[in-house]
Amino acid sequence: MKALVTGASSGIGRDIARLLGKRGYDLILVARREQRLLELKKELGQNVRIICLDLSEEASCFSLYEQVKHENIDILVNSAGFGLFGMFDETDLFRELEMLNVNIRALHILTKLFLKDFKRNNAGYILNIASSAAFLPGPLLSSYYASKAYVLRLTEAVYEELRREKSRVCVCALCPGPVATEFDKTANVKFSIKGLKSIDVAKAAVDGMFRRKLVIVPGTRMKLARLFKKFVPEKQLLRIVYHLQKRKEG
């Protein structure tokens, strides 16, 4: 059994790698920061391969697939991603494009390439890390929210295609609320509510994936928030989200 985890150097990706390792999976860990990956490899003390790549570069996504396509991957975890806070006309365009390349383009490429292989084998799991942001408009984190909506909708669409084909391949989306990771530092925000522990979110993700859930929402608070959204007019929702986001300003 073998799993490929992107964004494995920190946060949810790192904890998912730990949990899969405990379940006996050989691991291929992907991230930009080699030292972090080496530390994790030493900690896990098992059959772990590390690959250092910047997935904001399209060529790196194809290079990754070419390096591992004969490895009989059973699980793909698309966890690489980050956010960018600020007014849409004021955020740095090139940093924003880098974010979209990681959050959307890399995930799209890897999902498509591995899905083809999984379908041929009629087996495999793809876990895409989205966010509760996918359920909402996100003023002040507009591009990040939009990118996570893409991840969720892509995952849902592929799920239905697979279901209609009676495929045994499983694809699912993890949609947590605030999580205590490096996200806030990277995005330059400060969460206004206490984030869930990364390890708890990772446990919910792995358990939900093996139960073949389509959308995994850890924590009661986010489940209730998702339900509440359905009863609020869109423009009112925009105002509420803006004020919540403004409180995060770092």
Distance between the termini: 42 Å
The total count of strands amounts to 9
- Main sheet specs: 7 strands, parallel
Uncertain runs are none
Task: Work out the strand percent.
Answer: 5-15%
- Put simply, the count of helices is 9
Along the chain, the helix and strand elements come as: EHEHEHEHEHEEHEHEHH
The structure class reads alpha/beta
How would you describe the overall organization of this protein?
- By secondary structure, the protein is an alpha/beta fold.
- 51% of the residues lie in helices and 14% in strands.
- The chain has nine helices and nine strands.
- It has helices at residues 11-22, 34-44, 58-68, 93-121, 142-164, 183-187, 198-210, 220-229, 234-246, and strands spanning 2-6, 26-31, 48-52, 75-78, 125-129, 170-174, 179-180, 196-197, 215-216.
- The strands form two sheets. Strands 3-2-1-4-5-6-9 form a seven-stranded parallel sheet, with helices on both faces. Strands 7-8 form a two-stranded parallel ribbon.
- Helix 1 (11-22) crosses helix 7, helix 3 (58-68) runs parallel beside helix 4 and helix 4 (93-121) runs parallel beside helix 5 (142-164).
- The longest helix has 29 residues, at 93-121.
